[in-house]
């Protein structure tokens, strides 16, 4: 049995990562969270790209624990803002992890952007780093359109503002999708799907 540490301090994101990995039915791999290991200092997420930041987090986790470590760096890339908030998504309002303040600021910034130019993409980069230093980085994207007011209570972050382009979403925001629906469509689900074969091979 090999163990993979999933390194995220965001409880709702961690729950999604766990759910998708559990759902993939990878046998012989035990997935644990940061609560199961001794605390180690967090690296600042100073990378210019989602991939850089995912690697920063996964390398730190693998170094500190000696375990294989998986980390996600993600965010919302808004067309009318030239890709921002991007890697600054978690702290766009200046307060890390304040979803409400982040959403309010984003809505105000794009208040004058007409419906046909309110496109955006959720992006997730997931990095897997082994104790011997092996690195795999994958990326998933999820296109949609931004609402003018939040809708729905599921998910986290910018989910209440984002209506996926996918027909099956039928105009619901990603905070109005069930957990299983979000996982099957989301940037994170798409990124992790590419890591499943790598995780299977770790199990030997
Ligand atoms: O770095 P960790 O500890 O994993 O947790 P974090 O919340 O700081 O995570 P990120 O640095 O990757 O920032 C991602 C932010 O992007 C947004 N985001 C990412 N995925 C999302 C999703 O599936 N739905 C809604 N918002 C999302 C949300 O605001 C997150 O806080
Ligand atoms: Mg972060």
UniProtKB/TrEMBL annotation:
Its EC number is 3.6.1.66. Binds 1 Mg(2+) ion per subunit. This is dITP/XTP pyrophosphatase. It is an enzyme of class 3 (hydrolase). It comes from Gordonia aquimaris. Mg(2+) binds at residue 73. The active site is at 73 (proton acceptor). Belongs to the HAM1 NTPase family. It catalyses: dITP + H2O = dIMP + diphosphate + H(+); XTP + H2O = XMP + diphosphate + H(+); ITP + H2O = IMP + diphosphate + H(+). It holds the Pfam family Ham1p_like. GO terms for cellular component: cytosol.
